[in-house]
Amino acid sequence: MECFNCGNCKLNESTYYCIAKGEIVINSNYKPQEKVRSGWKKGNKDYEIHRRKSKKEVEV
Questions:
Q1: Whole-model pTM?
Q2: What domain range includes position 5?
């Protein structure tokens, strides 16, 4: 069995598909990352502008 250097095993995923083995492999070296909250946050300038626009649309 030769590695095809597909890169699936090098990604930080809990499971991946190995082409050389032809099966799904559970990654024992998997390290979960912290989830980053992206989106609107109170106090953010863009958040306030978006909130005011959407509020005006609802009132009209």
A1: 0.51
A2: 1-29
